[in-house]
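Below is a filled-in request sheet from our internal design queue. Each sheet records the structural input a requester submitted and the sequence that came back. We keep these sheets so that new team members can see what a complete request looks like end to end.

REQUESTER: design group, bay 2
PRIORITY: normal
MODE: inverse folding
CHAIN LENGTH: 232
BACKBONE (tokenized):
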């Protein structure tokens, strides 16, 4: 299915409350069509009401909950979430978790987290992993295909390899975007800019702080949308 260029930008509503999320969405207006709501908002109250509010105003919603539990619990959670109004839901990229989520997804698209963009080789070594970041991403993406997931979360550095191996069988959603070279990486370790992400094969990008912390968030979002439009 073709993706509208204006929907390829997903803005992360990583703010402390649903009220602040709504205020930011209203400030951004028609500059943004797709929003991510994650754990910070999930812990604040009003999470599902916020998803419904966004959907009612015509926005798509990415529920970034990174589910990771025993398969039965994951299955039941996904069954509850599939009628929430969200378009995407994240789970960790472990086979039993992905299988459980895919079984109950309905129309919900399941995205498997490969390796967090705040991780690098040292982080994997601390976890006891022996594979490189790139190989682990590819292996988890293979598992996502085999278990019936719809896409993966992966940095722009791995997007080209993912597309080369899986083509359009998997959506690639890329966080860790820093539109300007002088923007701080914060806690992200594997970052790319907007144009590079799409050149490498990303289908969607997730942008948080570079828009949320901008003096004019709407102008920042429109500038990214302009770069996306040129890419497609």
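RETURNED SEQUENCE:
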């Amino acid at each position: 299915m073709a993706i509208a260029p204006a929907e390829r930008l997903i803005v992360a509503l990583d703010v402390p409350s649903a009220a602040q999320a709504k205020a930011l969405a209203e400030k951004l207006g028609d500059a943004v069509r797709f929003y991510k709501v994650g754990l910070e908002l999930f812990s604040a109250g009003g999470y599902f009401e916020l998803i419904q509010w966004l959907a009612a105003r015509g926005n798509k919603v990415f529920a970034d909950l990174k589910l990771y539990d025993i398969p039965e619990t994951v299955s039941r959670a996904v069954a509850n979430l599939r009628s929430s109004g969200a378009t995407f839901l994240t789970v960790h990229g472990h086979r039993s978790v992905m299988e459980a989520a895919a079984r109950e997804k309905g129309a919900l698209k399941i995205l498997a987290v490969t390796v967090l963009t705040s991780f690098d080789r040292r982080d994997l070594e601390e976890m006891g992993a022996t594979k490189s970041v790139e190989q682990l991403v590819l292996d988890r993406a293979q598992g996502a295909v085999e278990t019936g997931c719809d896409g993966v979360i992966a940095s722009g550095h791995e997007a080209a390899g993912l597309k080369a191996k899986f083509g359009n069988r998997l959506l690639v959603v890329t966080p860790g975007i820093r539109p300007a070279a002088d923007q701080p990486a914060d806690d992200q370790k594997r970052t790319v800019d907007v144009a590079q992400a799409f050149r490498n094969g990303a289908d969607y990008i997730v942008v948080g702080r570079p828009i949320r912390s901008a003096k004019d968030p709407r102008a920042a979002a429109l500038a990214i949308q302009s770069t996306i439009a040129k890419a497609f």
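SHEET NOTES:
- Residues 5-231 form a domain with the TIM Barrel fold (CATH 3.20.20.70).
- Strands lie at 9-12, 34-37, 60-67, 88-92, 109-113, 151-153, 171-174, 204-207.
FILED BY: M.R.
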